[in-house]
Amino acid sequence: MTRWMKIALAGLGLAGLAYFYYTEIKPVVIFGLRDDYARAIPYQAVPAGLDSLKAESCGTCHREIYEEWKSSIHAQAYDDPFFQAYWAKDKHIWVCLNCHTPLENQQPTLIKEIPRGRVERAVQEVNPRFDPDYQKEAITCAACHVRDGVIHGPYEDSAAPHPTKFDPSFRTAQICYRCHNVVSGPAQFYNVGPCGTYAEYEGKYFMQERGFICQSCHMPEVDRPVADGSPIRRGRRHLWRGGHDPDMIKRAVAVEVTAEPRRPKPGDNVTFTLTLVNAGAGHKIPTGDPDRHFTVEFDVEDASGRVVAHQQDTMGRWILWQPAILELYDNRLLPLASRDYRFRQKFPGGAERLTVKARVRYHILTDGQHEMLTKKYGLTADDPYSFVIYERAFPLTDDLPGLLQAASGSDTQACRADGKAAG
C-alpha cells in the first residue's frame, strides 16, 4: 500500500468517526433531556366553573395577579425577540417549547417517541388540540396551577367557584425545578447546564438561616385579596423579575471602591480596588444563559474627557462549543462571595488633572452574539442587552480620600425573605 493510499484511508476513517460523532453522539441541543421536561405538560381540560384556560379568564377574578403576569418575562417567554432569534438559530427544535410554552395545549405537535434521547429523531404527529393563540401566552396561569381539571395552589383552605387543591410545592423552590434545572447531555461537560439556576441555589445560609426560597426575591410577598371580593391574605406577586431586569441585578450586587495610599502625594502610584459582592442572590451571579456576564471597567480621563487608559476584566462562564461542549472555566460569584479588581494609576502633580472612572456593567449577551442574532437570525428588537449597574468618578485631587469615603459601600440592597429590601 502506498503512502498516499494510507493517508487517504486515514482521512476516510477520521471523516467516518467525525460523522458518527456528530450524528450519533453529540446532541443537537445544548442540554440533556430529563424525563420531566422531555415532553410537554400533558393536555389540561378547562376546570369546572371556568370558561377557558386563558389567562384573561383567570384575570376576571384574579385581576392584580393577571396584570402582574402580563408584565412578566413568563408571559413573554414565547414572543420574546431574543428567544425567537435563538430558536431560529436552533432550527425551531420542538424541545425548547417544553419550557417556553409548556402545556401540550400550546404545542403544534405531539411527541410520541424520542429514540435514544435524540430530539432531532423524535416521532411527532399533529396535535389536533393545539391552540396557536394560547401558545402566545407562553408560561401561562394553567402551566403551574391546573392539573387534571383542578386549580392547584399554596392555600389549604381555598374557597372558590372552581375545584381547588393545596399543593405544598408552591411553598418551596420545587415549583421552579422543572424549567430552571436544565442538565447537561452526552458530549457536554458543564458543571451546571444552561438555565441551571436551581442547581446553583445555595440553601445552607439563604434557606436554612434566612428562610429564603426562589419566590422570596422573584415573587415577593404581599398582603391583598387573592381574588376580587375575597379576604386579605398573604400571597405573592406574580412578577418573576430576574436576569433581564437591571433593578434586580442591582439588588443582588454590592460594590465598594477603595484606594491605597489613602492620601497620595504627587508621583505616587495609586491602586484602586473595586470589590464586587454577591450580596443578595441565593445562586451564582450571573446565572441562567451562559452568555450573561459582568465586566468591571476602569477608565482614566484627562481634563477634556478623553480616555487615556482603560482596563477591563470579565466575570462569567467560558464555554467551548465545538467539537464537544466543554466549560473551560467559571469565575462567577457564589452567594455572599466577593472578588477584588485592582487598577493602578500615577497620582499627577502640577496642573495636570485626571479622573478615574470605576464601572460595573451587566451583559445579557455578548456583542458578537447580538450581531450574529441580528444579521443571521432576524433579531429586530432594539432592547438594551447591557446595563451599567455601578459607576463612580474619582478625580485625582487632594480630595480623593473624601470622595472615596462618600462613595464607600453601595446604593444596592439585598433581598430579604419577605421580598423587601434589606441593608
Automatic annotation (TrEMBL):
<dbReference type="Pfam" id="PF13435">
    <property type="entry name" value="Cytochrome_C554"/>
</dbReference>
<feature type="domain" description="Cytochrome c-552/4">
    <location>
        <begin position="58"/>
        <end position="108"/>
    </location>
</feature>
<dbReference type="InterPro" id="IPR023155">
    <property type="entry name" value="Cyt_c-552/4"/>
</dbReference>
<protein>
    <submittedName>
        <fullName>MULTIHEME_CYTC domain-containing protein</fullName>
    </submittedName>
</protein>
<dbReference type="InterPro" id="IPR036280">
    <property type="entry name" value="Multihaem_cyt_sf"/>
</dbReference>
